[in-house]
Write a structure and sequence with these properties.
Elements lengths: L8 E4 L5 H12 L3 E6 L2 H15 L3 E5 L5 H10 L5 E4 L14 H29 L2 E6 L12 H21 L4 E8 L5 H14 L3 H9 L10 H11 L11 E4 L9
Parallel strand pairs: 1-2, 1-4, 2-3, 4-5, 5-6, 6-7
Helix pairs in contact: 1-2, 1-8, 4-5, 6-7
């Protein structure tokens, strides 16, 4: 399927590895030039060069923490005229309600709600002026089914979801779509971190922790960054212009819900 994206430009945040990298790879395969962002320059440069070599697209890298005002300024100076925005940031640490204070919540909101909003605020006007644009926010399955130990993430990402629900409908008439991708567990560093927490809490091995989590997923396995990236690329495509303000689960069936 031709996604109709050749020659477009995308900013993909936190894209040196994991789900962000999967999105960058799928967009590059569709002919999209990239601005890739991540905090660590070494992994970012390696991933960017691999994408250049495999897909022949232009890739600009910005090593910066996009959750800070300084990082946002750096990223936006390189991405002032993009057609596609993919927001992404690592989730806050797990814990219990009694572990967190106000600073913990402010940090979670900055990373997982206010940063995507700031990027959309900066980039939506020029997308609307051009009459075409795509925004995909990587959130979490916890938006539909809260995960008790991820209360910080539950709160911040639910706030972003509410913001997108209204904003997406305000910009849709200008040819701009905003949608959210809700990952369940995928084979990424985030999964390793969560499974490591289980090994410490329960005194089991990593393999046992992974098997335990896989048993809760109807698909019987963790997702891959490649299939997640393919879903992102479709939402950015010419075929997805009538999908507005939606929350698409990619969780292997883990969330047991009708809607």
């Amino acid at each position: 399927m031709d996604l109709g994206l050749k020659g477009k430009t995308a900013l993909v945040c936190a894209s040196s590895k994991g789900l962000g990298l999967g999105c960058a790879e799928a967009l590059a395969e569709a002919g999209v030039d990239l601005i890739m962002n991540a905090r660590g320059s070494e992994a970012l440069e390696a991933s960017a060069q691999d994408i250049r070599d495999r897909f022949g697209v232009r890739v600009t890298t910005v090593a910066a923490d996009v959750t800070t005002p300084e990082g946002q300024t750096q990223v936006l100076s390189a991405a002032s005229d993009v057609d596609i925005l993919v927001t992404n940031a690592g989730g806050p640490p797990p814990g219990m309600w009694s572990d967190w204070d106000r600073d913990d919540f402010v940090g979670a909101l900055d990373a997982n709600m206010l940063t995507p909003i700031a990027l959309m605020t900066a980039l939506l006007p020029q997308m609307m002026e051009k009459g075409w644009g795509r925004v995909v926010n990587i959130t979490s399955q916890s938006v539909k089914a809260p995960i008790a130990v991820l209360g910080l993430s539950n709160a911040a990402r639910a706030g972003l979801t509410g913001y997108v629900a209204g904003t997406a409908r305000q910009v849709a008439g200008h040819g701009v779509t905003i949608n959210n991708l809700l990952p369940g567990i995928h084979a990424t560093d985030r999964a390793i971190a969560l499974d490591t927490g289980v090994t410490k809490a329960q005194g089991i091995t990593m393999q046992e922790a992974q098997k335990q989590r896989e048993a809760t997923i109807p698909a019987g396995r963790y997702g891959t960054r490649q299939e997640f990236g393919a879903a992102c690329a479709f939402l950015c495509s010419q075929h997805a212009g009538f999908i507005i303000g939606q929350n698409l689960l990619l969780d292997g069936g883990a969330v047991n819900a009708t809607l």
